[in-house]
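Thread: Newbie trying to understand structure tokens

Hi all, I'm a second-year student working on a class project, and my supervisor (Dr. K.) asked me to get a predicted structure for one chain before our next meeting. I've only ever worked with sequences, so writing a 3D structure as a token string is new to me. If someone could post the tokens and maybe explain what I'm looking at, I'd be very grateful. Here's the chain:
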Amino acid sequence: PPDYARGGAGGASLGLPAGQATGNVFVPGKRRRLNLVAICANIFLPWFAFSAIYAGMSFSLHYQHPSLAIGLAVLGLVAAAVAGAFAARARQRGQGEMWYTFFALALLIATVAAFAFGELNFSLNMQRFYDIENLNTYPSVNPARERGQQLMDAGRVYFADGTGLDMRKAMAFRNLDLYCVAPIVHGEEQLASYDFWAVGVNCCSGVSSDFRCGEFNNPHARSGLRLMADDQRPFFRLA
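---
Reply by user tm_fold:
Sure, no problem. This is what the structure looks like when written as tokens:
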């Protein structure tokens, strides 16, 4: 028969087996050992995969070698599938599959998120930047002497001193957004054709000849970037 611990006032029996007299936390129990390698792998490897795939999809690798950038994302999906297979095998064997399952899910989420956000960042921001970087740069351009046909490969243009905007000829066209344009001129000269224009979206009234886009009121502004948004060009031409 089991022994019973005695205690309390007057030595009264508590009716509990020995070692459980008070049911307190001081009774030794089994402790599960933590797998530090698995913890570190599950924390850092998905973040590393996200960073690598996001960088590959966002920056120059995507621009110069798009197949390699997509290959990084495919590699992440393959690694997630392999981790899922290990989790299924561990479950069949009755072993602990928690770390494999967590790693597979975390890696899958990291890969899909990095691919989606990297592609979005590249298409909205970085692709236009790399396009401009691959075009030519022209210094000291005088709008009164140069023609647009001479600078068809221009990405960045630095205008000569005395160049500014002719606010009297500023115009706009509305198609949901307001597309604003103003000719770039040199001094007060009347030009036979206006080939260089400053453009902007929703930065003019559309009623009167005004233009408030970018550094329009900066007398030291002498440079401009080529418009790389092909979907906006027709609306600026209509203005």
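A couple of things are worth pointing out once you decode it. The longest strand covers residues 177-186. The helical segments are 36-58, 60-64, 66-92, 98-133, 233-238. Feel free to ask follow-ups in this thread.
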